[in-house]
Design goal:
The structure holds 4 protein chains of 4 kinds. In chain A, 78% of the residues lie in helices and 1% in strands. In chain A, strands 1-2 form a two-stranded antiparallel ribbon. Chain A starts with 7 loop residues before the first helix and ends with a helix. Chain A has helices spanning 8-30, 32-60, 75-101, 108-125, 129-147, 154-185, 190-197, 203-219, 228-235, 238-263, 268-291, 296-317, 324-356, 367-370, 372-386, 393-407, 410-439, 455-473, 476-485, and strands spanning 64-66, 71-73. Chain C is an all-alpha fold. Chain C has a single domain, classed as Helix Hairpins (Orthogonal Bundle). In chain C, helix 1 runs antiparallel to helix 2 (27-52). Classes of the chains: A mainly alpha, B mainly alpha, C mainly alpha, D mainly alpha. Chains in contact: A-B, A-C, A-D, B-C, B-D. The interface between B and D is large, with 51 and 59 residues.
Chain lengths: 489, 692, 99, 516
C-alpha cells in the first residue's frame, strides 16, 4: 500500500458535511445569541450543499474507488447518499421549531444530527467491514445523545438508556461476528469476503454472518431485535424519533444490503434463512402488535417494525432464481418510499402534538374538521403506509411482490402470502387513526397548544407529501434510481 | 293494412302516454282519448280482417279446384291442410338486437289466428272502455285507470301480433304488468294489493316455465321466429326430447297465465279489480294469452306431447282437471264475480284441453266465442253492482232483479245460455267442436270430462241466475237499470254471443271460421277436423238442458227449504266436501300459508340469518380474530414474554446458577436477555443448518 | 499457540460480558460489561490478525477501542442524567415506557 | 380531430382530477362556487364522453380505439396504456352520466355533516378512479385506478354515512383491499409467466394464456377471481355490500351500485377471461354455481329485510348473479348479456337507491313497516318507485330484462370448453342448464321481493305517524337527476340493440378462445 489516493470529488459530500458540522459547532459556540437562528440554517443549507457533489458525481457516472476498495462511490452509494442528505434535511426542518421552542435548545443538536448523516453517507460508500463498522457507529452514537435530548424528562432518559444499552450490545454482537468473518476469510474487504463466501466454508462462517446481521437487525429494529424501538420512539423527542425510524433504520438496511450483496451473497444458505425469519417475524409481530396501540408513536413504532419486515422481504428472496437484482432494487425503492411516508407521518404527529400536547390516537379525533388540510396530509401518509394507490406506498409493496414472484420459490411465495395478508391487517391500525380523524367528533383535550403549524414543519410535510403523491403516480423516478444503483452489480 | 298491422298496438300505446300526460286536463279526464284510440284500433282491426279474408278468398279462388274441393270436404275426417290452399302469413320485421351470431327480430305477423285475436281484443276493449265511463265515473284515479286500460290493450295487441316468441314474451309480461296495475287499482286496501301481487307472482311463477320453454325452443330450432319454430317442430329432424321439455316448460307458462289447475288461484282473487277490468282480463286479454301461446306454437306441443298419438298428455289432463275443478268451485261461491271467475277457469280448461286433444280449431273457436259471452256476463254483473247493490257482488244481497233491470237481465240470460252451451248459442258450437274432436281423436275420456263439465256449467250458472234475478230482492238499495254507456255494450255482446257461433256451424254448412282463421301457416297436417256428430250434439244439448232443470229445481228447493244447505250441514261427507270446496281445495292455504309464508318467513329469515351470523360471522370472527391475535402478539408475546415467560425460563433453566435472582433487574435487561437469547437460538439453528 | 485458545478465551469473555449486562443492576457495571464484550472482540481480531499476518485486524481493533471509548463516554453521560433525575443508577428504575 | 383521438381518454380521466383540485382550492365558505365547479367539471367530462361517442368507430368495436400507449414505469415495463372497445364504452358513458346526476341530486340535500367541498371533491376523485379503470389497458394502471376508487368511497361511507358507518366503511375497505392484494400478486405472476414480460392487457390477451400451464392458470385465476368477485360482489364475498349500502349516503349508494360493482365484472371480462382462458374454463362452472346461489340467496335475504335500502342492496347481489352467470358461460352471448346487465343494473339500481334516499330524506326512516302510502303522499315518486321496481324485476320492455333474460338464455348453451372439472361436454351442458332453471326461478323471487317492497312502501295508506307530515313530491333537482336514468331504462328497454350492437364484436373477440 502506497500513499492513499484521495479523490476529493468523490469525498466532497463527506467533507462538506464534516465542515458543516464543525462550522455549526463553532458558530454556536462563538455567536451565542444569533446561533439559535443560524445553526439550524447552517445545518440545513449544509445538507443541501452536500447534495451538489452528489449530483455532479451522479452526472459523471464514473465509479470511484479508494482506500484499496474500502470506500467506493458508485451509483448505489450516491443514491443512498443523496437519500440520506434529503432525509437529514427534512429532519432538520422537523426539528426546527420543536427544539427551538423546548427548553432544551442547544446548537449541538444540529451538529449531532449532521454528524449522524455524515456517518450514513460514509456508510453508503463503505465496502469493507472496518469502514462499515466505523460508519455505523458514527450514525448511531449521536443518536444516543439525541434520544436523551430532553434531559430533564425521565422518559427521554429512559428512551436513551434503553436505546443505548441495546445498541451497544448489538454492536458487540455484530463486532464479534465481524471478527469471526475476518478470521475465516482473512480480509475485511467485502469483495474478498465475497470470493471466500462462494467456496466451501465451515458452519461457523454462517454463524458469523448471522451475528453480523443481528447487529444490523437491531438498527432496522427487526423482530426479535426490536424491543427497544417502541420505548425509545415514544420517549425520544419526536423529530429524533422520526430520524431514528427513517434515517437510522435505512442506514441499517444499507449496511445489510452492502454486506449481503457484496459480501455474503454467494453463500445464500447462511444469510437467506436468517433474513427470511427476520422478515416473517417482523411482519407478523409488528403488524399484530401495532393493532393494540393507543399511542400513535408506539403504533408507528410497531408499524415501522412491520414495514421493516416488508423491506426485508425482497432481500430474503434475492438469493433465489436470479432474483437478486429485483430483490435489491425492491429494498432500495421500498426504503426510499418508506422514508418519505414515514417522515411525513411523523411530521403530522409532531404538528398534532403541538396542537394537543398528546400523542394518544384519541387526540386525533375530529382533526378532519378542525384542521382538514393536516388531516388530509396525514391521511395520505397513512394510506401510503398501508399501500393504497395512488400514493407511493403501493409501489413499494409492488416491487416487494415483484421480487417475491420473480424468485418464485416456495419460501418466497409463503413470505409473499404472509406479506399480502398482513398488508391487509395493517390497514386495521392505520385505519383506526384515519377513522379517528374523519369519522369522530373532536374531543376536548383541555390544555391545548398552538393550533398553528409552523413553516418549517409545513415545508417538511410539503416535501414528503409531494414525494408520496408524485412517486405514487409516477414511480419511474424511484424505480430508475433503483435500476441505476444496481446496474453495476 | 296487413303489412302495417303494427299500427294497431301502437295506437293504444300512444293513447296511454297521452292519457298519462294530458289526461287530467281533458274534459272527460282522458276517457275520450282511450275510447277514440280503441275505436280506431277496432276499425283498423276490422280492416285487417277484411283484407285477410280477401287474401284467403283470393287464394282459394286461385286454386279453383281446391276451392270446390274445400266445399265438398264438408266435415270429413281429413288432414286440415290437404285440400285447403296454404295462405302464407304476412310477416314483417327488422332486427331488434343482435347478440353474438344470433339476430333477434321484432316484427308483426298477420295470420288467421292473429286477425281473429285482433278483432276480439279491440272490440272487447273498446266496449270496456265505453262501459267504464259510466262504471268508473268519479273514481279516485279515473285517468290512471284509463291509461292503464289503454296500455293493457296495447300490450295484448303487441303480444298478439308478435312474429317471434321473445316478442311474445315481452307482450306477455307487459300484460301481466297491466293486470297488476288494474287488479290493484284500489291499492289503498290491503286485499286489493295482495290480489295484484298474487296475480303477478303466480303468473310470474308460470313464466319460469315460459322463459325456460322458449329458451329450449330457441336452441332447438335456432330461432325465436314462430314460423321457423313451427316448421322445425313439424320437420322430421326434430329433437323430440327437447320438444318435450319445451312443451312441459311452456305448459307451466300457460298454466300460470291461463289459470290452469294448480296455478289458478290468482284468478278469482283478481276480482279485486274493477269489474270492467275483470271482463277484459277474463274475456279478451290476460288469461287467454296462455291459450293463445298454446295455439301459436301448437306444433311444439303436438310434437312434444305426441298429441297425434292420442292417449293422455299433460296438456289435456291439466285442461280436463281444470274444467272440473273450476266448475266445482263455482258452485259454492256467493260472490257473483267469483262464480264467473271460476267459470272462466273452467272454460279455459276447455280450451287447454282442446289443444291437448288436438282440437286446435275448437280451442281457438271457443276462445273466440267465450270472449263475447264472458265479457257480457262480467259486464252484466258489473251493471248489477253499479246500479243495484252499491258495489257489492254478494248474491245474497241480490235477487229479483229481473224486473228493475230488464236489459241487464236479458243480456245476462243470453250470456248464460251461451256459456252453458245450448243450441244455437255461441257456446254450443265451440264446445261441440271440442267434444267432437276429442271423440273422433283418441281421447274418449276427455269427451266424458267435457260433458260433465258442460253439465256442471249449466248447473252453477242456473244457480247464479236464479239467485240474482229471481225471487225477492234481498238488498237495501233501490235497483234501477243502468245507463246506456253500460247497457249498450251489454246488448252488443249479447248479440255477438248469439251469432258468433254461427261462423262455424256445420249443420248450416258454414265453416267460415275455419276457412278464415285456421290459416296460420304451419299446423300439424295430421290434425283432425271432426265430422259434425248429431248424436253428440244432441247429448250435450240435452244434458245441458236437463241439468239446468235439475239445478233450477234444487236451487228453488234450497231457496224454499234450505235442502242443499241442510244437506251439507247434516251430512258429514257432504259437509267436508263443501268445506273442501269452500277452502278452494286448500290450495291457497298451501301457497300462501306454506309456500309463500315459508319462503318469506323461515327460508328468507334463514338466509338472512346465515348472512348475518354465518357468512358475516366468519368475517367478523376474522376481524375479531386478528384483533385477538394482535392482543396476544402484543401483550403476551411482545410484552409478557419479556416480562414473564422468558423470565421464568431464565429463572428455571437457562441460567440456573447463582446470579439468577439478579436477572429480574428491570425491563431493559429483559430486552437484552431476549436479544441475546434470540441470537443464541437463531445462531445455533444457523449452525445446525449449515453443518448439515 | 493454536488459534483456538484465543477464540475460547474470547468466547468466554464475551459470555461473561453478556452475563454482566443481564445480571448487573447498576448501570455503570452494565457499561463495563459491555466493554468486556468489546474486548472479547478485540482478542479475536488480534489473534486472527497475527495468524494471518494481516494488519487489518489490528487496525480494526484500534477502531473498536476508540469507538468503545466514545460509547462509554456517551453511556456514562446518559447514566449521569438518569442518576440526576432518579437519584439512582439502577436500571430497574427505568420502567416508565410501555404500551 | 386527430388530437382528440389521442387525448380524449386522458382528458376524460383527468378532467375530474383538475376539477377536484379547483374545488379544493376554493374556500369552504364559497359553497355555491364549489358546487358550480364540481358540476361543470362533471359536465365537461360528460361532454368529452359525448365527443368520444361521436368519434367512436362503431363499425369496429372489437378494436381498441382512442389508444394512448406511453412509457410510464419502464423499469417494470408498465405503460400508460389507455383504450376503449365496445365493452368499455357503455360502462364509460354510464359512469360519465351517473356522476353529474349524483352531483345534481346532492346540490340541495347534502347528508350530514354537510361539507359540500369535501363531498364533491370525493365524488370527482371517485370519477377519476372509475373512468380510469374502464379505460386502463395496463394491469398496473388498472390496479391503481381500481384502488383509487376505494378511498373516496371509504370516506363517503365513513363520514357521511349512517349510524353504523365505521363498521361498514372499514368492512368495505378491508374486503376490497384483501381481494386486490391477491389480485396484484396474480398480476405480477402474469408478468413473469407470460412469454414476454409485460403488463399490457391486450398483449397478454393475445397470448391466450400460452406458456402458462393449466395448473398455474387455475391458481392465478383464483387470485383474480377473489379480487374481482369481492368487488362484484359474488356470494359468499358479498357481506360488505349490504352494510356499505345501508350506511352509505344516498349518492354513495348510487355510485356504488351503478358503477363500482361493475369494476369487478368488468375485470372478469377484460382481464381474467381473455388472459387466462384455461383457468376460466376450469372455474366457469364454479362461478356459475356461485352466481346462481347468489341469485337465489340474494333474493331470499331480500325477503327478510325490513330496511328498504338493505333490501335493494341485497337485490344487487342477486342481479349481479345474473351478470356473472352470463360471464360464466364463456360465450359471446353471455358476455354481451353481462355487459347489458351491468348497464341496466347501473341505471335501475342506481335509481332505486336515489329513491330510497329521497324517501329517507322525507320520512327519516327506511323501515318498510313504518312507510306506506307513498302513492298517496307523493304520487309521482310512488309511480317512479313502481316503475323502477318493475324494471328491476326484469319486466320486458325495460332495460332490466335485457340483462337478465339473455343471461339466462346463454346458460342453456355454455361454451363447450367451460367444463371445469366436469370433464365432458354433456355434464357441462346439463350443469349450466340446471343453473338456467334456478336462475329463472330467481326471477320469480325478484318479482316477489320487489313487489312486496312496493306494496309496503308505495301502496296502502300512510301510517298514522306520517298522516299529517308534509311529504314533498319529487323536487326539481330530483327530476333533473332522475329523468336521464328513467329515460335510459325505457330507451334501452325498447332498443336493446343500442348496447348490444356496440358490445357484440368486442364480446366475440374476448371469448374467441372459448369458441372452439
Amino acid at each position: 500500500m502506497g500513499t492513499p489516493y484521495f479523490d476529493y470529488h468523490a469525498l466532497a459530500p463527506v467533507i462538506v458535511l464534516a465542515a458543516v458540522a464543525l462550522l455549526a459547532l463553532v458558530v454556536d459556540f462563538v455567536w451565542k445569541d444569533g446561533g439559535r437562528r443560524a445553526v439550524p440554517q447552517i445545518a440545513g443549507i449544509g445538507l443541501l450543499l452536500a447534495l451538489i457533489p452528489v449530483f455532479t458525481l451522479a452526472a459523471d457516472g464514473e465509479t470511484r474507488s479508494m482506500f484499496g476498495g474500502a470506500f467506493v462511490v458508485d451509483n448505489y452509494a450516491l443514491a443512498f447518499a443523496g437519500f440520506f442528505l434529503i432525509v437529514g434535511y427534512v429532519a432538520v426542518l422537523m426539528s426546527y421549531d420543536y427544539i427551538d421552542e423546548g427548553d432544551y435548545y442547544r446548537g449541538e443538536y444540529y451538529v449531532l444530527l449532521v454528524t449522524s448523516v455524515l456517518g450514513m453517507v460514509v456508510l453508503a460508500s463503505a465496502r469493507d467491514l472496518i469502514t462499515i463498522f466505523v460508519a455505523i457507529e458514527t450514525v448511531t452514537l449521536p443518536t444516543f445523545v439525541l434520544a436523551g435530548w430532553r434531559k430533564h424528562d425521565t422518559r427521554s432518559n429512559e428512551a436513551a438508556i434503553k436505546y443505548f444499552i441495546i445498541g451497544v450490545l448489538s454492536s458487540a454482537v455484530m463486532l464479534y461476528g465481524m471478527s469471526l468473518i475476518f478470521g475465516l476469510s482473512n480480509s475485511t474487504l467485502l469483495s474478498e469476503i465475497g470470493s471466500v463466501a462462494s467456496g466451501d466454508n465451515p458452519a461457523l462462517f454462517a454463524v458469523a454472518i448471522f451475528l453480523t446481521l443481528a447487529g444490523f437487525a437491531f438498527k432496522v429494529s427487526a423482530v426479535p431485535f426490536h424491543f427497544w424501538a417502541p420505548d425509545t420512539y415514544q420517549g425520544a423527542p419526536l423529530p429524533v424519533t422520526a430520524f431514528l425510524s427513517v434515517a437510522s433504520k435505512a442506514a441499517g438496511f444499507v449496511a445489510m444490503l452492502s454486506v449481503v450483496a457484496l459480501g455474503f451473497f454467494a453463500s445464500p444458505n447462511s444469510w437467506q434463512p436468517v433474513i427470511w425469519i427476520l422478515a416473517a417475524a417482523s411482519i407478523v409481530v409488528g403488524n399484530l402488535a401495532a393493532l393494540r396501540q393507543t399511542d400513535v408513536v408506539r403504533m408507528l413504532a410497531y408499524s415501522s417494525v412491520a414495514q421493516g419486515g416488508f423491506i426485508l422481504v425482497p432481500l430474503a428472496v434475492s438469493g433465489d432464481n436470479d432474483a437478486a437484482r429485483a430483490g435489491f432494487q425492491g429494498v432500495l425503492v421500498y426504503i426510499l418510499i418508506y422514508a418519505a411516508m414515514n417522515m411525513g407521518a411523523f411530521a403530522c404527529v409532531i404538528a398534532n402534538a403541538r396542537r394537543t400536547r398528546s400523542t394518544e390516537i384519541q387526540s386525533f379525533s375530529g382533526l378532519g374538521r378542525s384542521n382538514p388540510a393536516m388531516a388530509v396530509v396525514f391521511t395520505v401518509f397513512l394510506f401510503s403506509l398501508a399501500g393504497i394507490p395512488p400514493f407511493a406506498g403501493w409501489f413499494a409493496k409492488f416491487v416487494m411482490f415483484r421480487a417475491v414472484l420473480d424468485a418464485g420459490t416456495t419460501a418466497a411465495v409463503v413470505l409473499g402470502v404472509l406479506a399480502a395478508v398482513f398488508s391487509v391487517v395493517a390497514f386495521f391500525y392505520y385505519g383506526t387513526v384515519i377513522r379517528r380523524m374523519w369519522f369522530h367528533a373532536p374531543v376536548d383535550l383541555g390544555d391545548t397548544g398552538s393550533p398553528q403549524v409552523p413553516g418549517a414543519l409545513v415545508a417538511a410535510m410539503a416535501i414528503t407529501t409531494t414525494v408520496v403523491v408524485v412517486i405514487g403516480v409516477y414511480p419511474q423516478l424511484f424505480a430508475k434510481i433503483g435500476d441505476l444503483a444496481f446496474r453495476a452489480t | 293494412m296487413l303489412d302495417n298491422v303494427w299500427i294497431i298496438p301502437l295506437i293504444p300505446a300512444v293513447s296511454y302516454l297521452l292519457i298519462l300526460f294530458f289526461g287530467k286536463r281533458m274534459p272527460k279526464k282522458g276517457a275520450e282519448i282511450g275510447i277514440a284510440a280503441l275505436g280506431a284500433a277496432f276499425v283498423l282491426a276490422c280492416i285487417t280482417v277484411m283484407q285477410w279474408i280477401d287474401r284467403v278468398e283470393a287464394a282459394v279462388s286461385k286454386e279453383g279446384g281446391a276451392a270446390t274441393g274445400l266445399g265438398a270436404l264438408g266435415r270429413s275426417v281429413v288432414a286440415a291442410a290437404t285440400g285447403a290452399p296454404e295462405v302464407e302469413p304476412v310477416v314483417r320485421g327488422f332486427t331488434w338486437w343482435e347478440n353474438g351470431p344470433a339476430k333477434f327480430e321484432i316484427g308483426a305477423r298477420v295470420d288467421g289466428l292473429v286477425v281473429m285475436m285482433l278483432v276480439v281484443v279491440t272490440l272487447i276493449s273498446l266496449l270496456v272502455h265505453v262501459y267504464s265511463t259510466a262504471y268508473m265515473h268519479e273514481d279516485r284515479r279515473f285517468t290512471h285507470y284509463y291509461a292503464a286500460l289503454s296500455l293493457f290493450s296495447a300490450s295484448m295487441l303487441f303480444m298478439v301480433i308478435s312474429a317471434n316468441l321473445l316478442q311474445l314474451m315481452v307482450g306477455w309480461e307487459l300484460v301481466g304488468l297491466c293486470s297488476f296495475m288494474l287488479i290493484g287499482h284500489w291499492w289503498e286496501e290491503k286485499p286489493n294489493s295482495n290480489a295484484a301481487l298474487k296475480a303477478f307472482l303466480t303468473t310470474r311463477t308460470g313464466d319460469v316455465g315460459l322463459m325456460t320453454g322458449i329458451i329450449i325452443v330457441f336452441f332447438a330450432a335456432g330461432s325465436f321466429d314462430i314460423s321457423v319454430v313451427n316448421e322445425y317442430a313439424l320437420s322430421p329432424e326434430v329433437n323430440h326430447g327437447l320438444m318435450m321439455w319445451a312443451s312441459v316448460a311452456l305448459m307451466f307458462g300457460i298454466m300460470g297465465k291461463s289459470g290452469q289447475f294448480f296455478l289458478h288461484t290468482w284468478l278469482p282473487d283478481a276480482m279485486a279489480g274493477p269489474t270492467p277490468v275483470s271482463a277484459l282480463i277474463h274475456a279478451a286479454t290476460m288469461v287467454v294469452a296462455g291459450v293463445f301461446l298454446g295455439a301459436r306454437v301448437y306444433p311444439v306441443f303436438w310434437e312434444g306431447f305426441s298429441i297425434g298419438g292420442g292417449g293422455l298428455n299433460m296438456m289435456a289432463v291439466v285442461g280436463g282437471v281444470t274444467i272440473i275443478v273450476g266448475a266445482a268451485l263455482a258452485f259454492v261461491q256467493n260472490d257473483i264475480k267469483k262464480v264467473l271467475a271460476y267459470s272462466t277457469v273452467s272454460q279455459l280448461g276447455y280450451m287447454v284441453m282442446a289443444l291437448g286433444v288436438g282440437a286446435w280449431l275448437g280451442a281457438v273457436f271457443h276462445l273466440f266465442t267465450h270472449a263475447f259471452f264472458k265479457a257480457c256476463l262480467f259486464l252484466g254483473a258489473g251493471s248489477i253492482s253499479h246500479s243495484a247493490t252499491h258495489h257489492s257482488f254478494d248474491m245474497r244481497e241480490m235477487g229479483g232483479l229481473r224486473k228493475p233491470m230488464p236489459v241487464t237481465f236479458w243480456t245476462f240470460i243470453v250470456g248464460t245460455i251461451a256459456l252453458a252451451g245450448i243450441f244455437p248459442f255461441a257456446g254450443f258450437w265451440s264446445k261441440d267442436e271440442i267434444l267432437a274432436t276429442a271423440d273422433q281423436g283418441d281421447f274418449r275420456i276427455f269427451l266424458v270430462v267435457g260433458l260433465i263439465g258442460a253439465a256442471m256449467t249449466a248447473a252453477y250458472m242456473t244457480r247464479c241466475v236464479y239467485l240474482t234475478f229471481f225471487g225477492q230482492y234481498r238488498g237495501h238499495h233501490h235497483p234501477h237499470e243502468s245507463t246506456p254507456a253500460i247497457t249498450v255494450p251489454l246488448v252488443i255482446l249479447a248479440v255477438l254471443s248469439v251469432v258468433a257461433g254461427l261462423l262455424q256451424s256445420a249443420p248450416f254448412e258454414i265453416k267460415k271460421f275455419q276457412e278464415w282463421f285456421e290459416q296460420v301457416g304451419g299446423l300439424p297436417k295430421e290434425m283432425i277436423i271432426p265430422e259434425f256428430d248429431y248424436g253428440l250434439a244432441a247429448i250435450s244439448v240435452s244434458l245441458a238442458t236437463i241439468v239446468v232443470g235439475v239445478a233450477a229445481f234444487f236451487v228453488f228447493r234450497r231457496e224454499e227449504h234450505g235442502a242443499l244447505k241442510g244437506l251439507t250441514q247434516r251430512n258429514r261427507v257432504a259437509h267436508a266436501g263443501y268445506r273442501f270446496l269452500e277452502r278452494k281445495y286448500y290450495l291457497d292455504d298451501l301457497y300462501e300459508g306454506v309456500i309463500v309464508a315459508g319462503v318469506k318467513g323461515p327460508i328468507a329469515r334463514g338466509s338472512n340469518w346465515i348472512n348475518q351470523y354465518v357468512i358475516d360471522g366468519v368475517v367478523n370472527a376474522v376481524g375479531r380474530g386478528s384483533a385477538r391475535a394482535g392482543r396476544w402478539a402484543y401483550e403476551v408475546f411482545d410484552q409478557e414474554v419479556v416480562d414473564g415467560a422468558v423470565n421464568d425460563i431464565g429463572r428455571e433453566t437457562v441460567l440456573a446458577g447463582g446470579g439468577m435472582s439478579k436477572l429480574q433487574s428491570g425491563r431493559l435487561q429483559r430486552y437484552a436477555l431476549f436479544l441475546l437469547a434470540s441470537v443464541g437460538v437463531i445462531g445455533l439453528a444457523v449452525y445446525i443448518v449449515n453443518v448439515a | 499457540m493454536p488459534i483456538n485458545y484465543f477464540l475460547i478465551l474470547s468466547a468466554f469473555l464475551f459470555c461473561a460480558g453478556a452475563y454482566g449486562v443481564l445480571a448487573r443492576r447498576n448501570s455503570v457495571l452494565v457499561l463495563m460489561s459491555v466493554e468486556l464484550m468489546l474486548n472479547a472482540v478485540n482478542i479475536n481480531l488480534i489473534a486472527f490478525s497475527a495468524q494471518a499476518q494481516d494488519v487489518a485486524g489490528q487496525v480494526f481493533a484500534l477502531f473498536v477501542i476508540t469507538i468503545a471509548a466514545a460509547e462509554v463516554g456517551i453511556g456514562l453521560a446518559i447514566v449521569l442524567l438518569i442518576y440526576r433525575n432518579l437519584r439512582s443508577p439502577d436500571l430497574d428504575r427505568v420502567e416508565q415506557l410501555k404500551g | 380531430m386527430d388530437w382528440f383521438d389521442d387525448w380524449a381518454l386522458t382528458l376524460a380521466v383527468f378532467t375530474p382530477l383538475v376539477g377536484m383540485a379547483i374545488v379544493l382550492l376554493i374556500p369552504r365558505a364559497e359553497e355555491a362556487a364549489i358546487k358550480v365547479v364540481a358540476l361543470l367539471t362533471s359536465l365537461v367530462t360528460l361532454a368529452i364522453g359525448v365527443g368520444i361517442l361521436v368519434d367512436f368507430d362503431f363499425g369496429n368495436t372489437a378494436k381498441m380505439q382512442f389508444q394512448v400507449d406511453k412509457e410510464w414505469i419502464p423499469v417494470i415495463n408498465a405503460r400508460y396504456h389507455l383504450g376503449i372497445d365496445g365493452i368499455s364504452l357503455p360502462l364509460l358513458i354510464l359512469t360519465m352520466v351517473i356522476v353529474p346526476l349524483c352531483i345534481i341530486y346532492s346540490l340541495d340535500h347534502f347528508p350530514e355533516p354537510h361539507n359540500p367541498k369535501a363531498f364533491l371533491a370525493l365524488i370527482l376523485l371517485l370519477e377519476v378512479g372509475m373512468i380510469g379503470t374502464f379505460v386502463a389497458l395496463d394491469l398496473v394502471l388498472f390496479f391503481i385506478f381500481f384502488e383509487v376508487v376505494l378511498l373516496p368511497m371509504f370516506f363517503m361511507i365513513g363520514v357521511w354515512g349512517g349510524p353504523n358507518r365505521e363498521y361498514a366503511s372499514i368492512k368495505f375497505f378491508l374486503f376490497t383491499l384483501f381481494g386486490s392484494a391477491l389480485m396484484l400478486v396474480s398480476f405480477l405472476a402474469l408478468y413473469f409467466l407470460s412469454k414476454r414480460s409485460t403488463f399490457d392487457i391486450s398483449t397478454l390477451a393475445s397470448f391466450e394464456g400460452a406458456g402458462i400451464t393449466r395448473g398455474t392458470q387455475v391458481l392465478l385465476f383464483a387470485g383474480l377471481f377473489l379480487g374481482f368477485a369481492i368487488k362484484v360482489p359474488m356470494f359468499p364475498f358479498h357481506t360488505w355490500l349490504p352494510d356499505a349500502h345501508t350506511e352509505a349516503p344516498t349518492v354513495g349508494s348510487v355510485l356504488l351500485a351503478a358503477v363500482l360493482l361493475k369494476l369487478g365484472t368488468y375485470g372478469f371480462i377484460r382481464i381474467a377471461l381473455p388472459i387466462l382462458p384455461e383457468g376460466a374454463q376450469v372455474w366457469a362452472p364454479w362461478i356459475g354455481l356461485l352466481s346462481v346461489i347468489g341469485i337465489i340467496y340474494g333474493a331470499l335475504c331480500c325477503l327478510a329485510q325490513r330496511d328498504m335500502k338493505r333490501l335493494i342492496a341485497f337485490s344487487s347481489v342477486a342481479h349481479m348473479g345474473f351478470v356473472m352467470l352470463g360471464i360464466a358461460t364463456l360465450t359471446d352471448f353471455g358476455v354481451n348479456a353481462a355487459v347489458f346487465g351491468m348497464v341496466a343494473h347501473g341505471l335501475i339500481t342506481g335509481m332505486l337507491f336515489f329513491l330510497a334516499g329521497s324517501i329517507q330524506h322525507r320520512y327519516h326512516t327506511r323501515e318498510m313497516s313504518r312507510l306506506g302510502g307513498l302513492l298517496v303522499s307523493a304520487p309521482k315518486m310512488g309511480w317512479i318507485l313502481g316503475f323502477c321496481a318493475m324494471a328491476s324485476l326484469g319486466l320486458p320492455g325495460l332495460a332490466g330484462f335485457w340483462g337478465e333474460f339473455p343471461a339466462v338464455l346463454s346458460a342453456f348453451e355454455p361454451s363447450r370448453l367451460a367444463n371445469g372439472i366436469l370433464g365432458n361436454t354433456a355434464s357441462t351442458l346439463w350443469t349450466f342448464r340446471t343453473f338456467m332453471v334456478v336462475a329463472a326461478i330467481g326471477t320469480v323471487l325478484a318479482a316477489g321481493y320487489l313487489l312486496w317492497m312496493y306494496q309496503r312502501v308505495g301502496m296502502g295508506t300512510p301510517k298514522p305517524e306520517f298522516e299529517d307530515a308534509h311529504i314533498h313530491d319529487v323536487h326539481r333537482p330530483e327530476w333533473v337527476a332522475w329523468t336521464p336514468l328513467l329515460l335510459g331504462i325505457v330507451v334501452f328497454g325498447l332498443f336493446p340493440n343500442l348496447i348490444f350492437s356496440i358490445t357484440n364484436d368486442a364480446a366475440s373477440s374476448i371469448t374467441r378462445a372459448f369458441s372452439g
